[in-house]
Structure formats: C-alpha cells, structure tokens
C-alpha cells in the first residue's frame, strides 16, 4: 500500500513538472496581488504613458504641422503605436500594477478602432484588371532583373517611377514581350497590354515631370491611369520633418484628378506618404486605397529590407477594389505593390 501511494505521489509531481510549469509561473507572477493596496498606486508613469498614447491616436489630426511637420510624421507611423501595447501590458504585469494594465486597454481599443479593419483579410476573387506600381530606384543595380520580376507579376498595367534616361531603354527591352504598349513622361512610365491614348504629363509644381496620365482602352471600357512620384520628405536637424514640396505636389495632383473627364480613374505611384497623412487629403478625399478596401494587413512597402510604411499606393475612383497585395522584393529599395480591380 505504501509503495502504491509513493508511486501515485511521484506520478502527480512529474505531471506537475511536465504540464504545470507555465501555470506555476503565472501563479508566482500574480502571487501577492490579492489584498495588496499597492496595485492601485504603483505604475502611475506607465498609466500616464498609456493614456498619452491614446490621446496621440485620438487627436492625431489636431497635432500641428507648424512644428517640424510633427502631425504628418506622427500620422505616417501611427500604426506602429500598436507594437508598444503588448510591451506596456508586460511592464504593468511585472510592476504588479492593476491600474496600468487597465489603462493599456484604452489605447488598445483606440488602435483597434483606427486600424483593426486593416489586420483582417478582405481579399476577394474575380476582377477585370491587374495593376502594379513600383518605384524601381534610380540607383537600381539590376534594372533588367527588376523588369523581369515585374513582368512576371501577371499585371495588365504597370507604372514605374524613378526612371532614369539610361535605364528607360533597358526597361523598354525587358518589358516589350509582355506589354505591347508603353509611354514614358519624365521619370515615370506606364506599360500596358491594352492600347494607350491621350497620354500627357501632369504638372505637379516641380519644374520637371514626375507625373503623367494616360487612357487605357480595356475590354470593359476606358480607364484613366495616373502614374506619379511625389517629392520625398526629409528629416532635417533645424527644420524637422520637411515636406512642403511633397504637400504642394499632392495638392496639384489632387486638382488634376478632380477634373478628370474619364469616369474610372486609377492612381499608381510612390506618394511618399500614407493614407493617414493629412498632407495627401487632396488625393485621398476623392479616392479609395485598394489595400485598405481589399487587402490583407497593412501592405507596408518601404523600406524594402524592413517595410515600415505604405508610401507606394494604388488608389481608385469609380473602380471596385477586389484584392491588393505586395510583391516580392526586387533590386529596388521599395517593394512593388499590386491590385486586382473590377471595372
């Protein structure tokens, strides 16, 4: 009888050792919380920081751009606030602060309200036209390889940005078998399987051409396609986040699209800004993001080595997004982005 009892006791302890370790650790972590009034006094700094994050998200539109364009900078990387929330929760747990852990729920709810719809999979099937945009990088060491990868994407229409005079012939030769038609204006170009017409540069107030429009004669009817590369933003020590030229160009591009006579419009390009950035309002107020409407996740496109923001955009007007995604990395510092749309 004693031997049987010993065996049972040993088996039980072995079972705890095998399966009970995580539970035991949690018990130790929460031990002492009950009856400890300090759980409501500790972690006040964590609590204040969590509530500050919530305010930054709720009031992001009220953060002024007058101080180094701080508002636009905040809006560009606003989704990354979500990465701080698990860390804050862990800190509150280790600090044994109930008030801090409860406070973290506030920015979590705000974040889910702002971005929760983006983390779900909204991709559909079908569609009539596949489009791709890619900033190929002026310093691309392998333009021919980049062109081959773009051609293999299955796109019907492709917009390329940051083209150089030396690289244009390389892209033309490499894409000729896949795309019968193409037009290049300045540093941007459109390649298409369908005829192009009424191609013209678009003045975005830079003094040289970094935007264009063309009409694509799809089997479902004409579609106005814009390709654009808005000026880059810069972070300067004395001026902060400078984007005045980008903002001015965005306004000019938005004005051009607003008077477009073709009903269905697709904008492809590197806008050097996210859909949250108020500086792009002249464009985003009248167009939908294919990624936001039919993508899976945030679809970050830059920098290619570790994407942190979606500044390469596919926006549509009177066109139905079906699915949207990023393509594999090329020799560029941007990822190509693609979308399938219904006409």
TrEMBL record:
Is-annotated flag, keyword Transmembrane helix?
yes
Residue ranges occupied by any Endonuclease/exonuclease/phosphatase domain in the UniProt entry: 132-334
Q: Which domain of life does the UniProt lineage start with?
A: Bacteria
Transmembrane segments annotated in the record for this chain: 44-65, 77-94, 99-119
Per UniProt, the keywords (alphabetical) are: Membrane, Transmembrane, Transmembrane helix
Q: Name one GO molecular function term.
A: catalytic activity
In residue numbers, the region (Disordered) covers: 1-20
InterPro entries referenced in this protein's UniProt entry, alphabetically:
Endo/exonu/phosph_ase_sf, Endo/exonuclease/phosphatase
Supply the name of the protein: Membrane protein
- Species of the source: Streptomyces uncialis
């Amino acid at each position: 009888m004693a031997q049987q009892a010993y065996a049972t006791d040993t088996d039980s302890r072995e079972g705890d050792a095998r399966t009970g370790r995580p539970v035991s650790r949690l018990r130790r972590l929460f031990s002492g919380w009950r009856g400890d009034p300090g759980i409501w006094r500790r972690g006040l700094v964590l609590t204040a920081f969590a509530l500050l994050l919530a305010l930054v998200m709720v009031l992001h539109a009220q953060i002024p751009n007058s101080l180094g364009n701080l508002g636009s900078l905040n809006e560009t990387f606003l989704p990354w606030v979500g990465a701080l929330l698990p860390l804050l929760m862990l800190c509150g747990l280790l600090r044994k602060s109930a008030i801090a852990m409860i406070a973290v729920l506030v920015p979590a709810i705000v974040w889910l309200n702002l971005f929760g719809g983006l983390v779900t999979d909204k991709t559909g099937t079908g569609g009539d036209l596949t489009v791709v945009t890619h900033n190929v990088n002026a310093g691309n060491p392998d333009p021919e390889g980049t062109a081959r990868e773009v051609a293999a994407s299955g796109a019907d229409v492709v917009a390329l940005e940051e083209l150089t005079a030396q690289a244009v012939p390389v892209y033309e030769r490499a894409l000729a078998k896949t795309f019968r038609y193409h037009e290049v204006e300045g540093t941007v170009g459109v390649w298409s399987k369908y005829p192009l017409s009424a191609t013209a540069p678009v003045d975005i107030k830079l003094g040289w051409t970094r935007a264009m429009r063309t009409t694509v004669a799809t089997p479902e009817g004409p579609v106005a396609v814009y390709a654009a590369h808005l000026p880059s933003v810069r972070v300067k020590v004395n001026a902060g986040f400078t984007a005045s030229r980008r903002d001015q160009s965005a306004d000019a591009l938005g004005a051009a699209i607003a008077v477009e006579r073709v009903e269905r419009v697709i904008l492809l390009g590197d806008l050097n800004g996210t859909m949250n950035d108020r500086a792009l309002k002249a464009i985003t107020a009248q167009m939908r993001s294919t990624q936001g409407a039919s993508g899976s996740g945030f679809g970050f496109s830059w920098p290619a080595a570790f994407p942190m923001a979606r500044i390469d955009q596919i926006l549509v007007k009177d066109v139905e997004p079906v699915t949207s995604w990023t393509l594999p990395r090329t020799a560029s510092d941007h990822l190509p982005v693609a979308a399938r749309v219904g006409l």
